[in-house]
Specification:
Elements (H helix, E strand, L loop, with lengths): L2 H26 L3 H4 L3 H26 L9 H23 L7 H18 L2
Amino acid sequence: MNSSIYTVLLLIASNTFMTLAWYGHLRLNDFTWFRSLPLIVVILCCWAVAFFEYCCQVPANRIGYKGDGGPFSLIQLKVIQEVVSLSVFVIVTTLLFRTETFRWNHIVSFILIVCAVYFAVKK
């Protein structure tokens, strides 16, 4: 596999951990035992999950960055990361938070962000 694919796969893994760290605790509030935890414990649990985000994010940027021999500029990496982040967020939200609905304006905004990636990586 080439560095572009490794970069994107690591970004997907990173953003999965990030989304779970940022929003997963909201879903866990459905459990009484979790809801009764002090906020500092919830924060520490989220940090523990976020640790794995960084374990994927840092190598993704190193492998993908042009300055380190990768195929992407820093700006391209950031724009790709944003689309991956939104994609993962939509999937996690759809699976874990059944009360959230996506409307036409969310879809249009997502399409525009995908267009931003196209223009950012276009030579």
